[in-house]
Amino acid sequence: MADNREVLLSIKDLVISFGNGKKKNTAVKNANFDIYRGETFSLVGESGSGKTTIGRAVIGLYPTESGDINFKGKKINAKLSKAERAQKTQDIQMIFQDPAASLNERATIDHIISEGLRNFNLFDSEEDRKAKVRAILNEVGLLPEHLSRYPHEFSGGQRQRIGIARALVMKPELVIADEPISALDVSIRAQVLNLLKKLQAEDNLTYLFIAHDLSVVRFISDRIAVIHHGIIVEMAETSELFENPIHPYTQSLLSAVPVPDPEIERNKKLTVYDPATAHDYSVEEPSFVEITPGHFVWASPSEVAKYKESL
Description:
4-stranded antiparallel sheet; 12 helices; globular; Rossmann fold
């Protein structure tokens, strides 16, 4: 199954901290996962859980304390040469959460989309540059006449399409999509998700999709990792995670997903997660354990035995 696929990105024992001494805050603790070429791997958790921190560390915006980030078999959270840094920037692109804040209001759409092409000299002539920009603009559903306009002239959904075009014009292998639809109207969200899936199918893109909404990632993901307070507590294929959630935190997240039927929604029981009562790690240390093939859970040895019994 997944074992035969090419690992594009590998995260091993990753720790990310901010500050020093008493003010030190460890945002990510011992994160471990692989992302296979061509798949959508989602990181899901509440605000402040560390999911965006991991995404920004992969792209190089945040330093790492320890652990490895390997891209195509090469460690990229290390000192890289200028050429290696440039190649990494070209190969890994990011779609940011807020389409209004991530676009330069003073630049035309043509300039915004062309910036990466110019910085890395990815075109043969001015005509070639224009052709590449027009082609990607067409792919994301915008028109050539939009090129001379400015970001404030567009809706939120259109601005996010511009952000997607800016990332994909570089022909990246990995795209980090950081909550790409959370700032959009509900009516626009499905359009942007469908666009991301369409572009993935056409260009064999690999996505690291960061979100807090499990109902969204269910639609787009191949595999999901659930993160809580900087620790990945559960990871499995999408259908497996929704059908057999093992960790109490995953169960609480799933219980909070809205149900379209008002009668069911009114009567459903929410699962509240309290780490203090759910776990006792005073005697046994937890670790990331494979409970069933491809289904990993952060658990102590006695919890592992209990989880396996319940399956």
